[in-house]
């Protein structure tokens, strides 16, 4: 509501309340309304003038001055007391003492009471909280338990295998790993506890049905090379079982180990030494020299992404203590490893006009290697209303903030300057997301240049089908009037973003 309009409404309400109070007090007198209403009209006009003047000066009717009950009572009582006192002093100075004290002071008291009541009701409505179901952010353990329920597995753990595994790890982890391996999977089994690819390469056979490594992924220095070697030692449908202490579980372990004060004291140095320094190209070598590359912290997304990059499909996840046990099946040859996958600015392949693949620039909002598990996350959680993945654990805490304030999209300005995309148009999609679209829409989509700001923000569709329908409607309109369509959609999108809090992530 504009400031001027607000003042007119509050001023009118103030006069109405004061007039109603004056009429009500006149009616209470024995002589009745007709006598006192007209005999005291001079007093009422004087009080009304002072009432409004003091209210305007004190801020009682000013927009943004009364924000809670404390300011309401403070400003109303102070303003009305001053106005009433000034009116009484004027009457005394003019020697006009023939007015009824009941009407004079009763009008002021009644009007004050009504203003406090109406102001309290106004604040109650204005500050009424929006009661909706709060967004529940599940913990890592809850997400894994929901997407990989234990009761869904029909594997009966082999006690003998559990005993063998227990020789190199805890009983809890041995039982968890054993519950992921069937007797058929263990037909040609290798159990190792190593961080060296050399030891995997020197295994006796080259077509194992299952390899279990008891050394956590955190302690393996050249992890990509290690996983590639495991891939080569497995048969066509071979399994690889491993474990990792994720970032979330590492934080829980440290919280249990130290008091709250000590934990927060070591949090920043730990973050810098184990998260920032190993990721920066200029300091990575120094970190590896002093630590040997051991005990590197990995997010769940990075651990799964490294396995997927190495040619594995994630079959099962299961927690054992603070360790995440992973069952991965060989599905292909390893993909080339991106050794510089920790940079702040990243490029992502997207489908553009004429089906041409080009790279979009973005700020990193996901954990490293997350791009390799897009199909896995989609299979677990599907698509949310805004076109993003539900419960996407690949997005970092920083990434959630960056997406809310659009920081992640800023580097795409370079793509606009290069001519890959325009300001408004359909979103450039990844190969996997593009494959989820209907065939006819895919064929239609590649006839247009994608854009930074998609039609989603104008129409706010919910679900993949509605998003496709929204894009078709945009295409039909664009074919008739390209410039007018983009201007109209752009204006609607900006309105929804700023006034309806439209977000896609």
In short:
With 505 residues, the chain is an alpha/beta fold. The protein is built from 22 helices and nine strands.
Describe the structure.
The chain is an alpha/beta fold. The chain has three domains: 3-126, no CATH class; 156-246 and 298-330, Rossmann fold (3-Layer(aba) Sandwich), CATH 3.40.50.150; 345-499, no CATH class. It has helices spanning 3-28, 33-39, 41-58, 69-93, 101-126, 140-147, 159-166, 171-178, 197-201, 223-233, 247-257, 260-276, 281-291, 300-309, 374-381, 397-404, 413-418, 431-435, 439-445, 456-459, 464-480, 482-499; strands spanning 189-192, 208-213, 234-244, 312-320, 323-330, 345-351, 357-363, 422-424, 451-453. It has a five-stranded mixed beta sheet with strand order 1-2-3-5-4, with helices on both faces. The protein has a two-stranded antiparallel sheet with strand order 6-7. It has a two-stranded parallel sheet with strand order 8-9. The protein is elongated.
Number of strands: 9
Question: What general outline do the C-alpha atoms trace?
Answer: elongated
How much strand content do the residues show? 5-15%
Number of structural domains: 3
Q: List segments where confidence is low: pLDDT < 50 over at least 5 consecutive residues.
A: 130-134
What is the spatial order of strands in the main beta sheet?
Answer: 1-2-3-5-4
Structural class: alpha/beta
Taking all Cα atoms into account, the compactness measure Rg is 35 Å
Query: What's the end-to-end separation, in Å?
Result: 30 Å
């Amino acid at each position: 509501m504009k400031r001027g309009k607000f003042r007119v409404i509050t001023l009118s309400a103030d006069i109405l309340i004061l007039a109603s109070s004056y009429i009500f007090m006149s009616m209470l007198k024995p002589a009745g309304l007709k006598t006192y209403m007209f005999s005291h009209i001079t007093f009422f006009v004087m009080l009304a003038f002072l009432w409004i003047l003091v209210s305007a000066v004190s801020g009682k009717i000013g927009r943004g001055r009364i924000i809670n009950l404390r300011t309401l009572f403070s400003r109303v009582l102070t303003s009305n007391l001053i106005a009433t006192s000034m009116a009484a002093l004027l009457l005394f100075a003019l020697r006009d003492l023939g007015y009824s004290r009941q009407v004079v002071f009763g009008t002021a008291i009644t009007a004050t009471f009504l203003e406090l009541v109406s102001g309290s009701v106004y604040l109650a409505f204005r500050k009424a909280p929006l009661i909706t179901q709060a967004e529940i952010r599940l913990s890592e353990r809850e997400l894994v338990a929901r997407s990989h329920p234990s009761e869904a597995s029909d594997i009966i753990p082999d006690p003998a295998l559990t005993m063998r595994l227990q020789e190199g790890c805890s009983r809890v982890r041995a039982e968890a790993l054993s519950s992921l391996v069937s007797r058929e999977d263990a037909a040609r089994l290798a159990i190792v506890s190593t961080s060296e690819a050399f030891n995997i390469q020197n295994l006796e056979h080259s077509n194992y049905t299952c390899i279990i490594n008891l050394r956590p992924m955190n302690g393996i220095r050249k992890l990509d090379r290690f996983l590639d070697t495991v891939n080569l030692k497995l048969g066509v449908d071979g399994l690889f079982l491993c474990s990792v202490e994720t970032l979330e579980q590492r934080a829980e372990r440290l919280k249990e180990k130290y008091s709250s004060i000590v934990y927060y004291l070591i949090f920043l140095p730990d973050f810098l030494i184990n998260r920032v320094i190993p990721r920066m190209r200029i300091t990575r070598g120094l970190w590896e020299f002093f630590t040997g590359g051991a005990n590197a912290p990995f997010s769940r997304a990075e651990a799964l992404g490294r396995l997927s990059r190495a040619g594995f499909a994630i079959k099962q996840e299961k927690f054992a203590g603070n360790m995440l046990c992973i069952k991965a099946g060989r599905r292909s040859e390893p993909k080339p490893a991106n050794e510089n996958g920790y940079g702040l600015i990243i490029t992502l392949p997207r489908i553009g006009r004429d089906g041409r693949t080009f790279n979009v620039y973005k700020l990193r909002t996901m954990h490293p290697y997350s791009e390799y598990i897009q199909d896995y996350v989609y299979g677990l959680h599907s698509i949310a209303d805004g076109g993003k993945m539900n419960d996407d654990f690949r997005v970092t805490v920083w990434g959630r903030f960056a997406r809310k304030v659009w920081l992640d999209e800023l580097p795409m300005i370079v793509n606009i300057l290069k001519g890959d995309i325009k300001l408004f148009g359909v979103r450039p999609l990844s190969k996997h997301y593009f494959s989820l679209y209907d065939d006819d829409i895919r064929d239609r989509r590649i006839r247009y240049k994608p854009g930074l700001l998609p039609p989603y923000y104008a129409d706010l569709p919910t679900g993949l089908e509605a998003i496709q329908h929204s894009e078709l409607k945009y295409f039909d309109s664009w074919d008739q009037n390209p410039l007018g369509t983009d201007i109209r959609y752009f204006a609607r999108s900006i309105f929804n973003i700023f006034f309806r809090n439209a977000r896609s992530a």
